[in-house]
Design brief:
Length: 641
């Protein structure tokens, strides 16, 4: 096979529905990416007797979805084919929110556009919006219908309208594709519960404990608070169903090619709504094999590569973003022009918090020196907080090299951020503490974790000042370091933890809800008030966004980590041709300095311009940094038009 045999059959099938010019653009992409589609499919299903039938049905699905793709999106496809790394532009500034908590619904969110534009947002990730079970739904990550939205948010037409409105304002919409599992209320699961064997084969289910026990011997519990092990018993069908997360989230069975075909269609449905970045949820768990921990298996990558090829053929506008919160070496493997072009950067997130707690930046620097550099066609999504917990997802090797024992260091960090450590400024909550291993993760809003909640409570203006600076320091790094920064909306107005979730039966027990508060629009009224911490944080973030978007040193530029010889100070260069900037951050509450000769050896002059503060500074003998100060030094020709 195969393309030679498939093409005429496809043409025959779609001939009456398309014009020849458009068809030519489709077949050009099909020719170009067919090998990238075929190869992972062959790897996964090459042994099936009807393998070629499955290839054909998948290609037909891709063609079908392209045929039904709205014309305006096909126009955008043509533009993006010319500029496939559009997401690396320094104009890209991301934000994320829950539609209900931020605005109420899709229509109401349209009214919030001026706020997003003021902040400079050009990428908006809306947390899951699709239909889920009533009550517990893992914050939307238990999808009951990939084609219909949660009715309390509005209609699918309103979502489509929102996507197009955002696009016309230069904002790319990002949505989740929860592809590892469906809810147990999805029609496929319901049919499986009614006994349909075809649908039961969509999931992984077993009549007795033999295989579940054999698998579990190598698995790690993901949500130990919810259930032990990875399986849940469903008495109605007398089956053990694979449920990595909650018992109502059923893992899909990608070893069944029909599932991949179906999910290709669901993903392209999202693309056809006008979604430009698709967040591939929980990708580490997509494939299972006996005798392994069933995380990050080679065929998890095959699934993604096949979906990526499908998107490239049917909807080249789209970029895929991987959500793999795993060991940093594994995180990187999901990133690639032919897999996920974007990836969360959990290592940076975890190590920024590490540096704030320890006041030392060595682990951060060592880890990024090894792992920050990725393919030029791809980009990191850098974040401080997201809707999930903070897991200590860094490599043992890097923290060991910085002089810490990884096990006790992780425990220290959890204690520090949950306020159990003496002298901690932080107000986080523990998440999914595993009694067997002692592992735990942390929940909390940025401002609460960084000390502002505590400082305001004890009414200490000096502590308030330090906390504001910590928040800006973290944002300064994610906004300038290279990749797409993602602001967790609410952080820009320094919102605190919301403890009310404890009295909601659907949320109680899942401490992640502490950092999912309703957006407090009243606080935004204070955003221009330089005297208030809210205003200081907001104005600071705004300034950082301006520096990023106005300065060519941040446009698709290289990042080089710099060791300035002071372990409390983190630094990196951004270089793009003749444009460059040096970012320097002091991660301690004490003043720090850097020897001027170090700066000179990097080619810096004695007189420096700090673009963040808007100051000219002299560094004759040394450069002085105030507690938690962030500097963005202009070191080359910079201003963009
Ligand atoms: C991802 C989501 C998380 C969810 C899990 C299961 O990790 O970010 O919120 O609980 O997937 O879908």
């Amino acid at each position: 096979m195969t393309l030679g045999r498939l093409r005429p059959r496809l043409e025959e099938r779609f001939a009456s529905r398309i014009d020849s010019v458009a068809w030519e653009s489709f077949t050009r992409r099909l020719d170009r990416h067919f090998a990238s589609l075929f190869e992972p499919l062959y790897g996964m299903y090459g042994g099936e007797y009807d393998f070629f039938y499955h290839v054909e049905t998948i290609v037909q699905t891709i063609a079908e979805m392209w045929v039904s793709r709205p014309q305006t999106l096909k126009g955008l496809d043509a533009l993006r084919e010319e500029d496939p790394t559009w997401f690396r532009s320094h104009r890209m500034v991301g934000a994320t929110c829950y539609v209900d908590l931020f605005a109420g619904g899709f229509a109401a969110l349209e009214d919030k556009l001026p706020y997003l534009k003021e902040l400079g947002v050009t990428y908006l990730h809306l947390m899951p919006v699709f239909r889920t079970p009533v009550g517990e739904d893992d914050g939307g990550y238990a999808v009951s219908d990939y084609r219909d939205v949660d009715p309390s948010l509005g209609t699918i037409q309103e979502l489509e309208h929102l996507a197009s409105l955002l696009r016309s304002h230069g904002i790319s919409l990002a949505l989740d594709f929860v592809l590892n599992h469906t809810s147990d209320e999805h029609p496929w699961a319901k049919e499986a519960l009614e006994g349909s064997e075809e649908r039961q084969a969509y999931y992984r289910m077993y009549p007795d404990r033999t295989l579940p026990d054999a698998y579990e011997a190598h698995l790690q519990d993901i949500f130990p608070d919810d259930h032990e092990g990875a399986f849940s018993f469903r008495p109605r069908i007398r089956r053990w169903v694979w449920t990595t997360f909650h018992t109502y989230q059923w893992d899909l069975n990608y070893s069944n090619p029909a599932v991949l075909r179906q999910m290709t269609e669901e993903m392209l449905f999202l693309a056809n709504l006008g979604v430009e970045v698709i967040r591939m949820d929980a990708v580490a768990f997509l494939w299972k094999e006996l005798g392994t921990n069933c995380q990050n298996l080679p065929h998890a990558h095959s699934v993604l590569r096949a979906l990526s090829a499908a998107a490239k053929i049917a909807a080249p506008t789209v970029a895929l973003k991987s959500e793999a919160i795993v060991h940093p070496d594994e995180v990187r493997k999901y990133i690639g022009a032919d897999e996920c072009q974007l990836s969360y950067n959990p290592q940076l997130m975890a190590l920024l918090w590490d540096a704030l707690a320890t006041r030392k930046t060595t682990s951060l620097r060592l880890a990024l020196e090894k792992r920050f550099d990725i393919d030029d066609d791809c980009a990191w999504v850098n974040y401080i907080r997201c809707h999930d917990d903070i897991g200590w997802a860094f490599s043992d090797e890097d923290v060991t090299a910085a002089g810490f024992d990884p096990r006790s260091h992780r425990r220290f960090l959890t204690h520090f951020y949950t306020g159990r450590h003496e002298g901690s400024f932080s107000r986080g909550l523990v998440f999914q503490e595993d009694p067997k291993t002692g592992d735990a993760r942390v929940s909390g809003m940025t401002a609460s974790l960084a000390g502002l909640e505590h400082a305001i409570e004890i009414e200490d203006p000096d502590e308030v000042e330090l906390a504001v600076r910590r928040i800006l320091l973290l944002h300064g790094v994610i906004i300038t370091i290279g990749g797409l920064p993602l602001i967790y909306l609410g952080d820009e107005i320094a919102m605190f933890n919301d403890y009310t979730y404890e009295s909601d039966t659907n949320k109680f027990g899942d401490s992640r809800w502490v950092h999912r508060p309703p957006f407090d629009w009243r606080r935004t009224q204070d955003r221009y008030n330089d005297e208030s911490p809210i205003g200081r944080v907001y104005q600071g973030i705004l300034r950082l966004v301006q520096v990023r978007t106005q300065d060519l040193a941040f446009d698709r530029a290289e990042t080089s980590l710099v060791n300035l010889g002071n372990e409390h100070v983190f630094s990196f260069f951004r270089n793009q041709g003749e444009h460059s900037a040096l970012v320097i951050g002091n991660f301690s509450e004490h003043p720090q300095s850097v020897e001027a000769k170090r700066l000179r050896s990097l080619g810096l002059r004695k007189t420096l311009v700090d673009m963040f503060a808007g100051d000219v500074i002299m560094a004759n003998r040394q450069l002085d940094l105030a507690p938690y100060q962030l500097m963005i030094l202009a070191t080359g020709r910079t201003q963009a038009v």
